[in-house]
């Protein structure tokens, strides 16, 4: 039975499912936000009512991730893709090197931007095996004097995810967590910077979350445009210019929903349970479904698989669509199938998909 009053199981890769309770609350508050007589979208970003929303969203992020005092939380625009440029622009001087761990298309895009500013190099790459695996810690070869080391914690397209993160000592570790932010507890103190577009686990598109250690702000290149300096936004509590107020409001509500769901430990447990349902359908299919990711590197957020041939895959996707499953096509660059099981995707949707996969195999195996 669908938990959702809306008649679909949403497995979109991003923008993706949002908690129904959050959408309903936003609907309720949309026209008259908490007695102001205005919508949240009509409030000044300098008004006390909006500032409360803004600061509460920051406070919830800090509390859920136990972010230490020496970090800033920023709300930026331009998506995770602008971070690919802002990171080297701020931190990679022309004569300096930065290590990039290559685990997919998003790492490649980040690397390409860094080449415009300094000398990035590949710390490790699993491209030869079509990015089906995360490199081992002992395969990461980097230099102690690097400007930073960059990795992609979850590879949305290939369906692989880091289970642990390296201890990089004095080399600032920077992670693109766009597709697994807030999906489990992490030790923020291992990272100099974490960034993520909000549109998978945190809210609608239009907001980018940056968690950044204060000491690296001081080391950034001062000779870059004002809007592209992290310090500009850090100094003004992300209110240097008009922030995406509605997106930040929604993000705050999604974080509140995570709190009410029992926090990150409970969310992580449910994410494991959800992914297991679908991985089990793959693993017990005798090769009818073929998972893309190596089992040690499997993502709990994006589950990628293929069927024996393209005809069967087309049939699977068509029948799935008719049965109410949305977003199961693999990314256009790799094809196949992908189920994105982000935080807000209910357990029931994953149970239904796992059942559908078993039934489809019975009829077509
Ligand atoms: C891991 C990862 N990084 C970066 C991006 C790009 O994000 P945006 O569209 O916010 O620029 C995506 C988008 O899917 C992604 O999955």
Keyphrases for this structure?
binds pyridoxal-5'-phosphate, three-stranded antiparallel β-sheet, 365 residues, 10 helices, globular
Write the layout of secondary structure elements.
Elements: E1 9-10, H1 20-29, H2 48-64, E2 71-76, H3 79-91, E3 97-102, H4 105-114, E4 119-125, E5 149-152, E6 154-155, E7 160-161, E8 173-176, E9 193-197, E10 208-213, H5 214-218, H6 230-235, H7 245-260, H8 263-283, E11 289-291, E12 302-307, H9 310-322, E13 325-326, E14 337-340, H10 347-364
Parallel strand pairs: 1-13, 3-4, 3-5, 5-8, 8-9
Antiparallel strand pairs: 2-10, 6-7, 9-10, 11-12, 12-14
Bound molecules: pyridoxal-5'-phosphate.
Pyridoxal-5'-phosphate (PLP) binds at residues 14, 79-81, 106, 152, 156, 176, 178-179, 197.
Condensed summary:
Helix content is 35%, strand content 16%.
User: Can you write the helix and strand succession as a string?
Assistant: EHHEHEHEEEEEEEHHHHEEHEEH
Q: Proportion of β residues?
A: 15-25%
Given helix and strand content, the structural type is alpha/beta
- Overall mean pLDDT stands at 96
């Amino acid at each position: 039975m669908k938990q959702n009053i809306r008649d679909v199981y949403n497995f979109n890769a991003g923008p993706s499912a949002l908690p129904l309770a959050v959408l309903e609350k936003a609907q309720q508050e949309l026209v008259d936000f908490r007695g102001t007589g205005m919508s949240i979208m009509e409030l000044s970003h300098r008004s006390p009512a909006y500032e409360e929303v803004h600061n509460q969203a920051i406070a919830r992020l800090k509390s859920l991730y136990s972010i230490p005092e020496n970090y800033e939380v920023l709300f930026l625009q331009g998506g995770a893709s602008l971070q690919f440029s802002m990171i080297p622009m701020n931190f990679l001087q022309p004569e300096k090197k930065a290590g990039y761990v290559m685990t997919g298309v998003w790492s490649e895009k980040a690397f390409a931007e860094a080449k415009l500013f300094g000398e990035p190099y590949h710390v490790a790459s699993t491209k030869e095996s079509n990015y089906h695996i995360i490199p081992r810690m002992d395969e990461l070869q980097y230099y102690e004097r690097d400007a930073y080391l960059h990795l992609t914690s979850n590879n949305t397209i290939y369906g692989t995810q880091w289970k642990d993160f390296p201890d990089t000592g004095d080399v600032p570790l920077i992670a693109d967590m766009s597709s697994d932010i807030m999906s489990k507890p992490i030790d923020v103190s291992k990272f100099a910077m974490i960034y993520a577009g909000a549109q998978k686990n945190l809210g609608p598109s239009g907001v980018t979350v940056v968690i950044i250690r204060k000491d690296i702000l001081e080391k950034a290149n001062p000779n870059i445009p004002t809007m592209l300096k992290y310090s500009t936004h850090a100094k003004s509590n992300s209110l240097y210019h008009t922030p995406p107020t509605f997106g930040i409001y929604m993000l705050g509500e999604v974080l509140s929903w995570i709190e009410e769901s029992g926090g990150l430990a409970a969310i992580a447990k449910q994410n494991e349970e959800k992914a297991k349902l679908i991985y089990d359908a793959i693993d017990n299919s005798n090769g009818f479904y073929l998972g893309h990711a190596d089992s040690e590197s499997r993502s709990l957020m994006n589950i990628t698989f293929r069927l024996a041939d393209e005809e069967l895959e087309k049939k699977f996707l068509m029948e799935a669509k008719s049965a109410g499953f949305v977003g199961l096509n693999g990314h256009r660059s790799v094809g196949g199938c992908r189920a994105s099981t982000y935080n807000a995707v209910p357990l029931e949707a994953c149970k239904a998909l796992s059942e559908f996969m078993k039934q489809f195999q019975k009829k077509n195996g």
